């Protein structure tokens, strides 16, 4: 790993999620001492729906200016959602960064013919632009004039590193995030990336946390940060959450990285990943060491909001019990064709008529989907809930009731990406080892309800 310029005492974590953008300043012990956030937006085009990277940039500069007034920030490290890359021209200017939810790249028969097998990449064929290889092929064929300007491709965390003033590099967790471009077992570019010549577009690899140099002089002037504030190589957000436990827990363990997506990550004891089913959105990401991590996922945050659109409405155990007693069910998929049941037609059977009932149903649905995901990747050991859902007592309590022989531990403080960064660059960050497991909710007939939920899905999707 590239050596740091010196000990990092007060880093800022730029956390760009699909829904929100955060700036978090950590103290020397890895605790959050300043935080702000804004909504992440997508511009509709032309030339196609793309991330508002200039809008994010203006907010980042303002946030760094405000945070820097009272906090001596000495390093900045970006973490971002996956399935995003930014082609840049010979002058380093960004081409529009495709929104991975845009369905334009779908139905590309030529790409389907040339993409590598799941056995090679452990990267399933996903909708929209969720495979970066599909994004690049679509840009090349649908927008050839634009693609001809691409002199390099920066993975999303590394784009922000470069814009902050750091060197242009690549990094393992983002190239290994269902891109079709990487072979996790061998730690090298896939046959597709080599055949298309895309491997040559990615800068050299550096480990997450590597020192990429100081911030740009113009950024220092604009924000008031010290000119020697370092830019540290970033990483994929869920892998930052996972890193916190990779460093502090004994295997096996299971991490639920939650937010827009709920991603189940299996900390295996050793050996090869379990058999994974590409038709059910299971895959292998790679950790900061380039090792495969079996994962299953669904858009939990998005689906929770679809079921319970009213915020801040409390629900109780009795609200959950009422749903079980009445057979009320939310069935996938409620947010696009992803997750373990990608082709199921999402619906709510016998919908509740109160806001509390809808909040309870959202928690029950997400817990039921989580159970499926854990089983799909053979997740074992303690179940750690990281991110926003760690604060959802109903969700955690239902997961605990569905796995009564396992410990379910909500992470504190719940911003797992920042805590993972603290573990990576400061050897700091609070372990969850002293947190109390949640008690399973005392729900009657939950097992029977869960079996009925699975039966309902199997009756609609007999191939499962």
Number of strands: 21
- Helical residues, percent: 25-40%
- The global form is globular
What's the total helix number?
16
The chain-level mean pLDDT equals 92
Describe this structure in words.
With about 475 residues, the chain is of the alpha/beta class. It has helices at about 55-70, 110-115, 120, 130-140, 145, 155-165, 170-175, 190-195, 215-225, 235-245, 300-305, 315-325, 355-375, 395-400, 415-425, 445-460, and strands at about 10-15, 20-25, 30-40, 40-45, 50, 75-80, 85-90, 150-155, 180-185, 190, 210-215, 230, 235, 255, 260-265, 280-285, 290-300, 330, 345-350, 380-385, 410. Strands 1, 2, 3, 6, 11, 12 and 13 form a seven-stranded mixed beta sheet that branches. Strands 16-17-15-14-20-21 form a six-stranded mixed beta sheet, with helices on both faces. It has a two-stranded antiparallel ribbon with strand order 4-5. β4 (about 40-45) and β5 form a beta hairpin. α12 (about 315-325) crosses α13 and α13 crosses α14.
């Amino acid at each position: 790993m590239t050596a740091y310029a010196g000990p990092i005492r007060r880093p800022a974590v730029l956390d760009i999620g699909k829904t929100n953008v955060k700036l978090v300043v950590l103290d020397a012990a890895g605790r959050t001492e300043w935080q702000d956030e804004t909504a992440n937006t997508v511009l509709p085009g032309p030339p196609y729906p793309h991330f508002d990277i200039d809008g994010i940039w203006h907010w980042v500069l303002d946030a760094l200016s405000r945070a820097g007034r009272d906090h001596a920030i000495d390093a900045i490290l970006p973490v971002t959602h996956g399935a995003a890359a930014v082609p840049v021209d010979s002058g380093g200017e960004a081409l529009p960064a495709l929104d991975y939810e845009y369905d334009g790249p779908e139905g590309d028969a030529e790409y389907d013919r040339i993409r590598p097998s799941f056995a090679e990449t452990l990267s399933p064929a996903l909708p929209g632009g969720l495979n970066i290889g599909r994004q690049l092929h679509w840009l090349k064929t649908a927008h050839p004039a634009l693609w001809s300007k691409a002199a390099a491709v920066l993975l999303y965390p590394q784009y922000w590193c470069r814009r902050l003033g750091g060197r242009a590099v690549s990094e393992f967790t983002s190239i290994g995030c269902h891109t079709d471009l990487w072979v996790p077992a061998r730690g090298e570019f896939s046959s597709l990336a080599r055949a298309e010549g895309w491997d040559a577009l990615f800068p050299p690899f550096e480990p997450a946390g590597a020192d990429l140099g100081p911030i740009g002089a113009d950024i220092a002037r604009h924000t008031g940060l010290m000119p020697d504030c370092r830019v540290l190589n970033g990483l994929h957000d869920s892998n930052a959450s996972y890193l916190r436990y990779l460093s502090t827990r004994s295997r096996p363990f299971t991490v639920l990285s939650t937010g827009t997506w709920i991603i189940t990550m299996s900390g295996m004891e050793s050996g090869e990943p379990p058999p994974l089913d590409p038709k059910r959105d299971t895959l292998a990401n790679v950790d900061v060491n380039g090792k495969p991590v079996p994962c299953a996922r669904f858009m939990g945050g998005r689906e929770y909001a679809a079921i319970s659109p009213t915020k801040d409405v409390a629900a109780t155990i009795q609200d959950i019990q009422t749903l079980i007693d009445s057979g009320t069910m939310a069935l996938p998929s409620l947010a696009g064709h992803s997750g373990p049941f990608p082709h199921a037609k999402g619906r709510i059977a016998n919908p509740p008529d109160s806001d509390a009932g809808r909040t309870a149903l959202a928690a029950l649905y997400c817990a039921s989907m989580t159970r499926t995901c854990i089983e799909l990747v053979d997740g074992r050991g303690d179940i750690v809930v990281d991110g926003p859902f760690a604060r959802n007592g109903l969700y955690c309590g239902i997961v605990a009731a569905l796995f009564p022989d396992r410990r379910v531990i909500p992470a504190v403080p719940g911003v797992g990406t920042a805590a993972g960064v603290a573990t990576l660059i400061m050897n700091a960050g609070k372990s969850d080892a002293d947190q109390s497991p949640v008690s399973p909710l005392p729900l009657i007939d939950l097992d029977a309800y869960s079996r009925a939920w699975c039966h309902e899905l199997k009756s609609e999707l007999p191939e499962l």
